[in-house]
Amino acid sequence: MRRTRVIPVLTLQNEKLVKTIRFKNPTYIGDPINAVKIFNEKEVDEIVILDITATKEKRQPNYKKIEEIAEEAFMPFAYGGGITSLNQIEHLFKLGIEKVVINSALATNLNLLREASNIFGSQSIVASIDVKKNWLGKLSVYTNSGSEKINLPLFEYVKKLEENGAGELFINSIDLDGTYLGYDNALIKNISELVDIPIIACGGASKITDFYEVMQHGASAVAAGSLFVYQGAQKGILINYPTQEKLAEEVYKKL
Amino acid sequence: MISIINYNAGNIKSIQNMLKRIGVKSMICSSAEEIEQADKLILPGVGHYDHGMKNLHQSGLIEILNKKVLEDKIPLLGICLGAQLLGNKSEEGIEKGLGWIDMDVIKFDKKKLSSSLKIPHMSWNEIKINKPSALFEGLNNDSRFYFVHSYHMQPSDKTDILTTTNYGYDFTSTIEKDNIYGVQFHPEKSHKFGMQLLTNFSNI
Q1: Which of residues 150-179 of B touch A (CB under 8 A)?
Q2: Is B188 part of the annotated catalytic residue set?
């Protein structure tokens, strides 16, 4: 049976878990270590933890917190936020994480990607792209938690990331973040036709069948935030994850 | 007590974290003296084959490892690249492997994979157990493990193949020969399945 990776994405602000809507209005969710412990019990495929204020505050990754989280993470653990140098990446791997997620630094420093991929292996380097549409529907890449637009057109940028050694592309749709409107399937399809490396789709997931749909459009893995931390229309906080049986029934067996 | 070999090419911390969780004592060994004392070894490994072998040579540990594994016959578990290094050579590089198992490491045959199956094989996947083994006690063909690799093991002697896994085609995911074990997947990142496997290894 072919599987995909179904990945909860947790966003971190000042050592607390928060959830945003369209990258704004962070709402407190809880403690990251508690969440990871629950995700262990649920046997999640992988987790991504993003410190969404590290770049903005021009600071280092919070190594102490990351190490504490890694000690409880018995699944592959990818960390992103504030990564700008090879030394930082080396430090992060020594703490027991498997992958780094790099976003803002890549807009001005593709060397970092190339060197990191050569030294640590491309399978451990995830290039992350935050995409936003303007009122005419034109797509642009944003860095620094969605606050700065880069000039290079999206599709050229995507090619450059692949050429420079990205192991995977994490494509996050800013417009769909926290909205439950479904993934941007067209965006994923367009990017997947340009590159050979795996694409992780993120932004907008509202139900398990969304995973199947975006995979039909070229995603190799699926990620979601709100879906795995909220429950129901009232958005009560509840860390959750589908069972293997449900994933097999609604996604894997159809692939 | 499990001794984890430190040769600057492995994800040591994750292995330590999981051993701690399952209540198995471990120590990190960087010197021949420390390895001389070991009664069970884990050879971790992430990254390029040649990088791994060069680092092993530079560590100066190969001689003592040969003695402990081939003469004293203490159990050794290679993980991911650490499993691949147990063979003769790899298509990934030009360095010779440890040569403890008669096998080559070959690249996934892209021609046999459909376009939706990317390389590396980065996924949870199931295993098919070919013969009874203490390493897979309490595990079965539904057990899932986390894989990340572009190359896979291909032993010359089919009886060395303990499990296979399907990714476009069946490849060798675990080898076992006497006291030597190698897993292509990452038990330290495979939840209860990995905990069971590492518990089993600690009991061998």
Answers
A1: 150
A2: yes
Closest residue of chain B to A39, computed from CA coordinates: B191
Q: Give, for A16, the enclosing helix (H) or strand (E).
A: strand A16-21
Nearest CB to B148 within list A40, A123, A255: A123
Range of B94's domain?
2-203
Question: Which residues face B161 on adjacent strands?
Answer: B175
Residue B123 touches partner A, C-beta closer than 8 Å: yes
Give contacts of B188 with chain A, Cβ < 8 Å. Answer: 74
- Which phi and psi angles does B21 have, rounded to 5°? -60, -40
Measured in angstroms, the CA of A79 and the nearest CA of chain B are apart by 14
CA distance A40 to A22: 28
Distance CA B58, CA B61 (A): 8
Q: What is the domain-level CATH number for residue B27?
A: 3.40.50.880
Q: What is the pLDDT of residues B92-105, one digit of tens each?
A: 999 999 999 999 99
Cβ atoms of residues B89 and B78 within 8 Å: no
Partner B contacted by A189 (CB < 8 A):
no
Q: How many CB atoms are closer than 10 A to CB B163?
A: 25
The model's pLDDT over A60-111, given as tens digits with 9 standing for 90+, comes to 999 999 999 999 999 999 999 999 999 999 999 999 999 999 999 999 999 9
- List the domains of chain A with CATH numbers: 5-254 (3.20.20.70)
Distance from CA of B121 to the nearest CA of A (A): 10
Model confidence pLDDT, tens digit, residues B25-73 = 999 999 999 999 999 999 999 888 998 999 999 999 999 999 999 999 9
pLDDT value, residue B147: 96
Q: How many angstroms separate the CA atoms of A44 and A241, rounded? A: 7
Q: Could you tell me the two tokens for A38?
A: 């629950």
**Average pLDDT estimate for B106-117:** 90
- The count of domains in chain B is 1
| pLDDT at residue B4 in the model | 97
Please tell me which residue of chain B has the smallest CA distance to A47.
B189
B149-165 pLDDT per residue, tens = 999 999 999 999 999 99
A96 touches chain B (CB under 8 A): yes
Answer yes or no: B80 catalytic.
yes
Residue B176 known to be catalytic: no
A-B contacts (CB, under 8 Å):
73
| pLDDT beneath 70, residues of chain A | none
